[in-house]
Prior knowledge:
This is Tagaturonate reductase. Residues 273-475 form the Mannitol dehydrogenase C-terminal domain. Residues 16-250 form the Mannitol dehydrogenase N-terminal domain. Keywords: NAD, Oxidoreductase. The chain has helices at 24-39, 59-63, 100-107, 140-154, 174-188, 193-202, 222-229, 252-258, 275-298, 304-308, 311-325, 333-347, 356-359, 363-370, 372-382, 387-399, 425-434, 440-448, 451-454, 464-478, 480-495, and strands at 2-3, 15-20, 46-50, 68-76, 79-87, 90-94, 114-117, 164-167, 204-205, 208-211, 214-216, 231-232, 237-239, 244-248, 268-271, 405-406, 409-414, 417-421. By secondary structure, it is α/β, with parallel strands linked by helices. A 6-stranded parallel β-sheet has the order 6-3-2-7-8-9, sandwiched between helices. Strand 14, helix 8 (252-258) and strand 15 (268-271) form a beta-alpha-beta unit. Helix 5 runs antiparallel to helix 6. It is globular, with a radius of gyration of 23 Å.
Amino acid sequence: MQLIQNRFTRKPRPVRVVQFGEGNFLRGFVEDMLETANERGTFDGSVAIVKPTDRGDLQKFREQDNFYTLLLRGRIHGKPVVQKRVITCIENVVDPYADTDAFFRIACLDTLQIVVSNTTEAGIIYDENEQFMARPAKTYPGKLTQFLFARFQYFHGAPEKGLLILPVELIEKNGEQLRTCVLRLADLWQLGTAFRQWVLQSNSFCNTLVDRIVSGYPKAEAEQIQQELGYRDVLLDTGEPFALWVIETDCEQETAQKLPLAQAGCPVNFVKKLEPYRERKVRILNGAHTSSVLAGYLMGKEFVRDCMQDSLMREFMETAVLREIVPTVPLPESEAKQFAQAVFERFDNPFVAHSLLAISLNSVSKWRVRVLPSLRDRLNQTGALPVCLTFSLAALLAFYTSDCLQDGVLLGSRGGEPYEVHDDRKVLAFFAASSKQKAVSAFVNDCLAQTAFWGEDLTRYPGLAQQVTEDLTAIRQTGIRQAVSEVLQKAKREEV
């Protein structure tokens, strides 16, 4: 079969975007919009990708000359829709651990205007142990600070060489948090007042919100798709047609000039206040994922659509969302319910194989961001723990149960078959040392007391540790399906 790089050509375009992250989501979201804007003549730019961690390699990109196919499939107004395009806008991919000089050369590009990142919820952190002379720094904020300082020095602090910085990590006020990390590192490394002022005055760190389900490489049907395409593509990416990018900015006109996507018809909104959009999306869509997929995986499901097609798991998700999450969303209830129903339809997309294991990445930080606020607010509203959201924490602990930590990966077991748990090293080390060695109640109490995991001591919530202990015990003794069934019965009794 012919190779994709032998089928397509790339129009030379200046590098205007540096992207920290090479994963499925960015390739199925940001690159899709940039490609559209290039095609419609509003952008004329290419992307340089930087691998943000020392894991993995970029060999697949290099073998395909950075070309890949994006396949978007779903329903629009109830009708099946299939959209296919070849992404050509990636000019370069760089591994800063293998070639740090190439990383810093990107910082010196005169044409560069935009920084995009997706390093997961755990990526935007301040680490006081970061070293300025490291090649490169360990964390994303560390790399970005080094990158900005190199640009500041190369262009002698020219104000017009500041960048539009758009993190899409799903944390509250992601732009502001990233800027805070950069400024703290600038102080820690004693990079000077002039650099600090340049960061503040010449660079725009925007809070953003993104929404699209990107399921990645369609392993089960890849061969059939490639036969239909007529070429081999190991970077094939799939997702749904729906997309939304909300960018908070006080300078809409200036921001839109640097990122002219809306002019090309892309679903990009520049707004003064992001919070209503964020609360709706994070609590309902992401909360639905994080509160249900670990239980679904332990039940034997592989994809989100499998959960939607299982009557028990669908009922669990709908109960969690409609009864426990929707009442906490700061929008009219009818609007929140309408969005929730649309989310259920998107999850039931027959074309999207959204892997539960892929969603499980960094589940501890995801549960903290996506589920804990709804649990807390619902408890305050009713005086009682929301049963499904509470159970989701027990399912998380069941999913992370293992005493086998190998090469930075925790190995869980489902029906005797191993699966990989990926999270922060400290999180995995805790579970490897605690999840099987202690009695259930002691394990639950120790876990809930880890303020570094949750941002607070969860044992302070009345009855939470006891209920999670009971739920985890039920999962271990009667199995996940029976445990979910009992939770739903309890929810029905409380509703009456």
